[in-house]
Amino acid sequence: MGVDVGAIKRLGDSDWVERLGRLGLVTKGVSFGIVGVLAILVALGVGGAATDREGALRLLSKEWYGLILLVALGLGFGAYAAWRLAQAVLDRDDEGTDFEGWAKRAGCLAKGVFYLGLSALAFSFVTGPRGESREEPERTARVFELPFGRWLVLALGAGLIAYGLWNGYRSFSGKFRKHMKKGQMDREDVTPLVNVVGFLGHLARMVLFSMVGLFLVRAGWQHDASEAIGFDEALAKLAQRDGGPLWLGAAAAGLFAYGLFSVLQARYRDI
Known about the structure:
Elements: H1 5-12, H2 15-44, H3 53-61, H4 66-89, H5 99-127, H6 136-144, H7 149-173, H8 182-187, H9 191-222, H10 231-240, H11 244-268
């Protein structure tokens, strides 16, 4: 039985995929917003926790209202994953099959798989244990046990640094506006807001991804899993610097800005 290429193309171009993408972007924005708000509370000294999105999901699981939010986030992360997988597998964006096209589609595939994992994690907190998270050194130690584990840690660290620098490039060059509907933004007078939150959000991601990547490279180079950190530890290290609350507050505000940028993408991105 032959493959119906036309049917696959119609599926990839479906309006449902667009709806899933917009729902997913809202969910992504909300998740970053929660992390940003929690860290801002720490910076202000009024409680909260400097954590990553996994930690935020865990905190939600301990509140009665959190279970409802976890189900909503799980569905939203799944919607985002479906959109990214449609880009990768069904070539929704018509990237093609040359080297550049496959590279972009591979990036979408990685994002889709990652958000499938976040979706599963959110639902796991609804139905399963809600204990403490496994710390980054423990994860890294498990990678060290794999064949070429040290090199995998080094490669992952280098990849995170590169991704951080890519976010910095997008921030300073304004490339984050590439897929936005600029005419519609101008008509609705939101272009200045998109520019500000896009710049600050990608700048914060540059700092945090690069920090995590540098510590992973250090862990791999020294073959010492205790050197590895995650996003929560990166935020904690910012808080421990001279003027820590200001550093943490700036990073937290940047993460909140990125969350708002994602929500604005749901409205104005060409999907």
